[in-house]
Design brief:
Elements (H helix, E strand, L loop, with lengths): L2 H22 L15 H23 L10 H28 L1 H16 L4 H25 L8 H4 L2
Helix pairs in contact: 1-2, 3-4, 4-5
Length: 160
């Protein structure tokens, strides 16, 4: 498959996924006493994702068609391993949110992505932990107290 065709398929798939998920936000239940509806932030993120997917589609359509050699699965994983690991972290985050809650799962996600993308070593891990705690606390304060957004608490934390 050529880079042009794979780019077109990827962009079209992302655009379709963003549109489908945007339609699902109309089913989000609102909670009384909140400043904004629960659908606001997913819609804002999905609109950004849709615009970026549209930019990818335009770039892929403008790319000239060239012949591409076929790559095996091991070559794809070796070349795209970091991107695949970040995607795996995101899906783990989605799986953990209803179990741990939004903020602990978000903290684990930030730490994992920093550890994948950033430097490795004992000092770097310490920096990753400090950044993770800082980002998690700032997001908790921003969303809970400033924006008054209710975040999923998780099942394990509600039992305490």
């Amino acid at each position: 498959m050529s880079k042009r065709l794979s780019g077109i398929l990827l962009a079209a798939g992302l655009l379709g996924l963003a549109a489908l998920m945007f339609l699902q936000t109309f089913k989000v239940r609102n909670f009384p006493g909140t400043r904004f509806g629960a659908e606001i932030w997913p819609r804002a993120i999905l609109i950004c994702l849709g615009v970026l997917a549209l930019i990818l589609l335009v770039q892929a359509l403008r790319r000239p068609a060239t012949a591409e050699t076929r790559r095996g699965l091991s070559e794809i994983v070796a070349r795209e391993g970091i991107a695949l690991a970040v995607f795996a972290c995101f899906f783990c985050f989605l799986w953990l949110v209803p179990r741990l809650g939004a903020y602990p799962a978000g903290g684990l996600f930030v730490f994992a992505v920093l550890s994948i993308l950033g430097p490795r070593g004992p000092r770097a891990i310490g920096r990753h932990l400090l950044i993770t705690v800082g980002v998690t606390v700032v997001l908790w304060a921003l969303f809970s107290h400033v924006l008054m957004v209710l975040a999923p608490a998780g099942r394990w934390w509600t039992l305490l």
